[in-house]
Design brief:
It holds the Pfam family DUF559. By secondary structure, the protein is of the alpha+beta class. The protein is about 40% helix and about 20% strand. The longest helix has 15 residues, at about 100-115. The relative contact order is 0.15.
């Protein structure tokens, strides 16, 4: 049975899509340009949250966080989304804006871990500013 978003979530997601932050715009360009096969979507209602970016195909949620994030609220949100079968990774705004190569490398590694291609070598990488 499919879980439908709560009333108003879709219209809220549409409003968020129309006014992205600079970091969200940069992440969206990165995801479109480097990971089209994952079919990421922006501002996706999941349960009673709206994820910044989600790939249903790869079961991956990417959050782009500013200074207002972190702590128990984000931990609870992550746990609920992960209970739906998604992996959640978070990046701070300055990392997305200033280290696109590192962000891209980390996303590639996570996508490879979740859905390894039998003929491609692992392209892992780390990013100190990423948090999950």
């Amino acid at each position: 049975m499919k879980n439908h978003p709560p009333t108003g979530a879709t219209s809220r997601a549409r409003r968020l899509r129309s006014s992205p932050t600079d970091a969200e715009q940069a992440m969206w360009r990165l995801l479109r340009d480097h990971f089209p096969e994952a079919r990421f979507r922006r501002q996706v209602p999941l349960r009673h949250f709206i994820a910044d970016f989600a790939s249903h195909r790869a079961k991956l949620v990417i959050e782009v966080d500013g200074g207002q994030h972190g702590g128990p609220n984000d931990e609870a949100r992550t746990a609920i989304i992960e209970a739906e079968g998604y992996r959640v990774i978070r990046f701070w705004n300055p990392d997305v804006l200033g280290n696109a190569e590192g962000v891209s490398s980390l996303i590639a590694g996570v996508l490879h871990e979740r859905h390894p291609h039998p003929t491609l070598p692992h392209q892992g990488g780390g990013l100190e500013g990423a948090h999950s």
